């Protein structure tokens, strides 16, 4: 019997044995509470965000693997600024301001999904989303910060994190 993959969307750290997880896993002979606890442990850093989760089950062996997805860049930025939704007029109405290091942190979280070959390009991608939803960086428009990144103003900070970005996980 092939492995079965079940996909769920859960709030980070708050999965429960109730529907949809429990009824999907119980017939496969797994300890539902154990699986839910492992999902919560793996997603707690995304508390307050919806996280895609896959449970890959080998029903014969009664074993499973959990794969945790990553929330969208927009969701991570909104959480970072404490906003519930993007600005409807991002060029004139700002919803919050973040330090440049927070942009790097989000780029590191998203690295598996970004096509960027290095941290500088990844940061520019995150800055593009920040600008599109009305988030400023260090009090400046994200477009200005993107230009400063291209000009090398942030190279010293980026170099501290570059190795972490390039490391395979």
Gross morphology = elongated
| Overall strand count | 5
CATH superfamily of the largest domain: Ribosomal protein L11/L12, C-terminal domain
Run of helices and strands: EHHEEHEHHEHH
Query: What's the CATH class label of the largest domain?
Result: Mainly Alpha
Instruction: Give the amount of beta strand, in percent.
Output: 15-25%
Q: What's the Cα radius of gyration? A: 19 Å
Helix and strand composition category: alpha+beta
**Biggest β-sheet, characterized?**
3 strands, antiparallel
User: What is the average per-residue confidence, as pLDDT, rounded to a whole number?
Assistant: 93
Number of helices: 7
Q: Do you know the CATH architecture of the largest domain?
A: Orthogonal Bundle
- Low-confidence blocks of residues: none
Helix content: 40-55%
Distance between the termini: 30 Å
Question: What do we call the CATH topology of the largest domain?
Answer: Arc Repressor Mutant, subunit A
As for the number of domains, it is 2
Strand order of the largest sheet: 1-2-3
């Amino acid at each position: 019997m092939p492995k079965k993959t079940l996909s769920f969307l859960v709030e980070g750290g708050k999965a429960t044995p109730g529907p949809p997880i429990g009824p999907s896993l119980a017939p496969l002979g797994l300890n539902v509470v154990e699986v839910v606890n492992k999902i919560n442990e793996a997603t707690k850093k995304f508390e307050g965000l919806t996280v895609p989760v896959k449970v890959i089950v080998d029903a014969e062996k009664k074993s499973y693997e959990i794969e945790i997805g990553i929330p969208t860049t927009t969701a991570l930025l909104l959480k970072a600024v404490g906003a519930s939704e993007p600005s409807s007029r991002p060029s004139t109405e700002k919803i919050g301001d973040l330090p440049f290091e927070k942009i790097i942190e989000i780029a590191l979280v998203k690295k598996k999904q970004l096509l960027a070959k290095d941290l500088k390009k990844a940061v520019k991608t995150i800055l593009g989303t920040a600008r599109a939803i009305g988030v400023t960086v260090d009090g400046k428009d994200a477009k200005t910060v993107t230009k400063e990144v291209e000009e090398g103003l942030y190279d010293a900070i980026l170099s501290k994190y570059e190795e972490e970005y390039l490391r395979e996980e």
